[in-house]
Design goal:
InterPro entries: Na/Glc_symporter_sf, Na/solute_symporter, Sodium:Solute_Symporter. Keywords: Cell membrane, Ion transport, Membrane, Sodium, Sodium transport, Symport, Transmembrane, Transmembrane helix, Transport. Helix content is 64%, strand content 7%. By secondary structure, the chain is an alpha+beta fold. The protein starts with a helix and ends in a 5-residue tail after the last helix.
């Protein structure tokens, strides 16, 4: 980075702080601070949903999986695509709740302040870990952009993470949700720039590096990209790591995401709760998330360009996570136009646009569902906003500590994503079924906490022999697929990068292990053997298994199909399990299902029945065995959820009073009148909006396939 790049970053920070100072004067009470007075229209709701849903780790993640798996790697972020149409329905729920936090919803629906407090504690842990992944990603990927790994003798992360946290604290703590939404609008524009900026410059770099700039334009870069990279990298469902994202895995990821996303704490705000009306809530949430899906398309195309342009870089042979940072440095740096600084600002925007909303929503939960509920029930709005600002500060500081002290970013992210299992079933069932009650919800939460988070740690501690018991250290079979094809220029470059990386590693065995096996030594056009190894995954341990002493592979079968041969082997020898016990997979073992021959994707897919169905099953059974919630509370709650929101607060209040006085007001619109199921018949706007959203999902896929196919031979 040069001085102009640092100027761009500095201006960006100054603008964010100025917005926070401006918004501070507009905060008069809790509703202003936590929900911006519920006065946001389509534009701000759209960019709030877009910004809060887009993390700094995601373009980096797509860069890595695109580098290793080609176009099919886009599913590492695009797995949310088919969840988006459901947002057209759920946005209405969040607006009709008329609450400031999802903790308030649990208090109302289940008559339990303790449940609201439990949800607040969940939110604190969730966001500390989730935000820490973004802070860690920024620190890691700023290094190749800035060209340094230390500042004032300190590792870059020790300076950059607190600095970023400080900026978020200043404008978010001061201005509340209004500041967050206005900054999200600006940061959303930056994220869109992040998604497309490298594409035209990257295509032109391909022409300059491998083409003829005097006769070719930047669109010819697509053709050069296809000439330099093997065709199997351009398949959306197979690619070089065939089977990593097959259809059944995509479906499973979509269902898992759908079940858990609705109880992520920020959805009460960005999901529609802060909008003027139900229409603004729906359009903002759905359009904002489709904007993100379109940006994901840009990230995938950028990864393919990087494959063609940067295959010879030894840094990427060591760590594909650096694809995005190195691409920005190599493509934008030579222009000296401040674009490297702009790219860094864009990455920061992707993190900060999520962090500000998360911080405010979490502070609302602590303020309302812990402080006001148990510490000071008579707190004034002024006192509550003061507590909210202090707790927002604590949450960001906590996330910074986790980011600095935890080395495993993926572990941080995985833990955060799995936590919503605790509250997902109570939310979905409580939304539609009157029989669900407080006692059953507590039973479900305790069961989920024990089964998915506590016992997987405790059981191996109580029975350490399990880690070395051959019954529990089994792995899936190793599948070695050998493909013969013509070598491309990228294949030649990859081998050169491997050689240089191994030279740099020298006696560093850990680094040499990270670099991996030698790619084929070749010239362009040679017939090379590409070896893809899959399987050999631990069935029962999250951290895999490691050999104790010598281990070996036993051949099971070998098959040849044309230019492809497939060798199946199983690991034998003494092994030791690492990490946590996959308790849910013990169920498959005891009912006699053999998992040895399943792929990694199928193994992950099998998590769906236990993680989705078990909590729902426990809640339903427990609800039948425990006392109902009082009928008057349920009548009032469901009457409110059926009453359409009026943008005018006074009119909306009067409409609610009418519904409260006549809980059977909407009986003629129920799908199952006279039962405990409180679902309404869908309106025309529900059906049409959902259908259009599904069509847009397929349009996004079509756009991605079309862009990736530009310049392909034939």
């Amino acid at each position: 980075m040069t001085w102009i790049d640092y100027v761009v970053v500095a201006v960006y920070f100054i603008v964010m702080i100025a917005i926070g100072l401006w918004a501070m004067g507009r905060v008069k009470g809790q509703e202003d601070y936590f929900m911006g007075g519920r006065g946001f229209g389509k534009l701000l709701q759209t960019f709030a949903a877009f910004g809060a849903g887009t993390g700094a780790h995601e373009p980096i993640q797509v860069g890595r999986t695109g580098w290793t798996s080609g176009l099919s790697g886009v599913w590492s972020a695009l797995m949310w695509l088919f969840v988006t149409p459901v947002y057209w329905i759920t946005a209405v729920w969040y607006r009709r709740m008329r609450h400031l936090t999802l903790g308030d919803w649990f208090v109302e629906r289940y008559e339990s302040k303790a449940l609201g407090a439990a949800y607040a504690v969940f939110a604190i842990v969730f966001y500390m870990f989730y935000l820490s992944t973004m802070l860690s990603a920024i620190a890691k990927f700023a290094e190749p952009l800035m060209g340094i790994d230390q500042i004032a003798g300190l590792d870059l992360k020790y300076v950059l993470i607190p600095g970023l946290a400080g900026i978020v604290i200043v404008y978010g703590v001061l201005g509340g949700l209004t500041a967050a939404y206005w900054t999200d609008l600006i940061q959303g524009i930056f994220i869109i720039l992040l998604s497309v900026l490298l594409i035209p410059y990257g295509l032109w770099a391909l022409v300059e590096e491998f083409g003829d700039p005097s006769t070719q334009g930047f669109m010819d870069g697509f053709k050069i990209m296809h000439e330099r990279v093997s065709p199997d990298y351009f398949s959306l469902f197979t690619g070089p790591s065939a089977g990593e994202f097959p259809l059944q895995y995509i479906v499973a990821l979509t269902l898992l995401a759908l079940v858990g996303i609705v109880v992520q704490p920020h959805f009460i705000a960005t999901g529609g709760g802060s909008a003027k009306s139900e229409n603004e809530a729906r359009i903002g949430l759905v359009v904002g998330n489709f904007l993100k899906r379109l940006c994901t398309v840009g990230w995938a195309i950028t990864a393919l360009i990087a494959l063609a342009l940067l295959a010879s870089r030894p840094e990427l042979a060591v760590d594909p996570d650096l694809v995005w940072g190195i691409a920005a440095r190599e493509i934008l740096g030579p222009l000296n136009l401040g674009l490297v600084g702009l790219m860094l600002a864009c990455l920061m925007a992707a993190m900060m646009s999520s962090a500000d909303t998360y911080m405010i929503v979490s502070s609302a939960l602590i303020t309302r569902n812990l402080y006001a509920a148990f510490v000071n029930p008579t707190a004034t709005d002024r006192q509550s906003v003061k507590v909210a600002r202090l707790t927002g500060l604590a949450i960001i500081l906590g996330a910074s500590v986790v980011a600095i002290t935890m080395a495993d970013v993926f572990a941080q992210f995985t833990f955060a994503i799995e936590l919503p299992i605790l509250f997902a079933a109570p939310f979905w069932i409580g939304m539609f079924w009157r029989r669900a009650n407080r006692t059953a919800v507590w039973i479900t939460i305790v069961f989920s906490a024990l089964f998915f988070f506590i016992l997987p740690v405790v059981i191996p501690m109580l029975s350490p022999d399990m880690r070395s018991d051959p019954q529990w250290t089994t792995t899936t079979n190793r599948i070695t697929k050998s493909i013969m094809r013509a070598a491309t220029p990228a294949d030649v470059a990859r081998h050169e990068a491997w050689v240089e990386a191994m030279e740099q590693a020298k006696d560093d065995q850990a680094m040499r292990d990270k670099i991996g096996a030698e790619p084929p030594r070749c010239q362009v056009g040679d017939q090379i053997e590409v070896i893809l190894v899959s399987g050999d995954k631990s069935i029962f341990w999250t951290g895999g298994v490691k050999p104790v002493g010598e281990d070996s592979l036993e051949m099971i079968s070998t098959v040849r199909e044309g230019a492809t041969s497939i060798l199946t082997q199983r690991r034998i020898g003494q092994l030791r399990g690492e990490g946590q016990l996959k308790l849910d997979f013990l169920l498959y073992h005891y009912i006699g299902i053999d998992l040895a021959n399943v792929s990694k994707a199928t193994l992950e897919t099998l998590r769906l029945p236990t993680r989705v169905l078990l909590p729902f099953l426990v809640l339903i059974i427990a609800s039948y065995l425990t006392p109902r919630t009082s009928a008057s509370v349920l009548d009032r709650y469901y009457a409110k959820m059926k009453t359409e929101v009026d943008p005018d607060p006074e009119t909306d209040r009067r409409n609610l009073e009418v519904s409260y006085s006549d809980p059977k007001r909407f009986e003629d619109r129920r799908l199952f009148p006279g039962t405990d199921i409180e679902a309404l018949r869908p309106r025309t706007s529900d059906v049409v909006g959902f259908a259009i959203s599904v069509a847009v999902c397929f349009a996004v896929i079509a756009l991605l396939v079309w862009l990736a196919g530009i310049g392909a031979a034939g």
